[in-house]
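Handout, page 2. Input:
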Amino acid sequence: MSFELSARDGASATSEADKAPLLPIHDVPADAASPASSLNVGSSAATNNDTKSRAMQLLFGAGGIYASFLYYGSLQEDVFRYESEDGTKFTHAWYLQVLESLANVIFGTIALIVMGASSNSKNSVGLWWGGTPNLPKKPFVSSGFSQVCSKAFTSLALANGLSFPVATLAKSGKMAPVMLGSLILGGATYGLREYLQVLAIIGGTAILSMSKKKASTSESTPLGVVFILLALVMDGVTGGVQKRLLADMKRVQVTPQPYDLMTYTNLFMMLFALLISFVLGEFSQGIAYCASNPKVFSLIWKFSMCSAIGQSFIFYTVARFDPLVCSTVTTTRKILSVLYSILFKGHSIAGQGWLGLLLAIGGIASEVVHKAMGAGKKKLKSLGSS
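Output:
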C-alpha cells in the first residue's frame, strides 16, 4: 500500500473534506453552511438526499478498503505459506515487490490517462495525460527506495517464519522508530500517552510472539524478527522522506495529485526492486518458481491487484472525507486482518497470547480514539469562534 501514510495524513486531500469530522455522513451540505444560504434553509428532502449520498460514498470507500486489504493480507500470508510438491517455499521477496509495484504503476498510469482524457484543459503533455505538469521526479527516488525496502523486509520476515499476526501487529508499532528518530535528531517531546501506546503495541506483540502453542504451524524465528525490525526502521525513514517530498513540492509550488504519488513512487519502487532482485539472483529464481508452481503465481497477481485497487480506494476516501476517517478504516482493517488470520489460517494461540493480542489492539485503538477526540475538539473550537 504505497504512499498510504501520506494519503492517510491528508497530503493528497485538497478539497473541503479536510474540515470534515470523524463521521461526516451527518454533515449539513456545504452550501447550507454558508451565510447566504443559512437564511433560506433547504428542504429536509434535499438534506436527507445529501446524507444518503455521503453515507453511500463512505460505504463505498471504506468497503473497498476493507475488501481489498483484507484479501491482500490473506493472499500475502498464503504466498509465504505455500509449499510446492518438492517441499520448497516461495522466498523471493524482492521479485514479489517487482510485480506488486508494477501492478500499481499500471493502475496509476491508466488512472492518469483516463483523467487526462476526461479533462477539458490541455497541459504540456497533451489531452491524454492527466498528471501534474512540471512535477519534479527526483524526490520520489528516496521515497520509493525506503518504501520498497520496508515492504520487502516485511515479506522477508514472513518468508523466514514470522507469523502474519505478529508481523502485522509489529508493523502497527511503526510510530516507535519515528518517535525515536524525532527524539534523537529532532529534539521532539512526547507525552505519557504516546509512550504507553507504543509500549502496549510492542509488549503485546512480544507476548503474542512468545506464547504460540507447540502445535502451531508457524514459529517466530530470530531472522524473521530481525527483518520485521528492519521494516520498522524503514517505516521511520519513510515518514521523514515523505514529509520532505511534500515540502519539496510545496517549495516549487507544485501540488501532486494522488495518482501522481501512486504512479511515480511505485515506479521507483519497481526499479529498485528490479535492480536488487537481479543482483541477488531472485528475479530469475522467482520466475522459475512461479513457472513450476502456477498456483503461487496466481496468488501473487491477485495480491498485486488488491494492492493497486486498495490504494485507489484509500485516495478516494481521503479526497471525500477527513483523513481521520481513512486512518480509522485502515487501522481497524489491520485488526480484522490479524483476527481473520488467527481464526481461519490455523494459528494456535495460548491464553497468554490472547492477552498480548488484546494489549496490542488496545494500543492501536487508542491512537484512533485520541485522533477522534482531537478532531472533535477542533470542530467545537471552530464552531465556537465562528
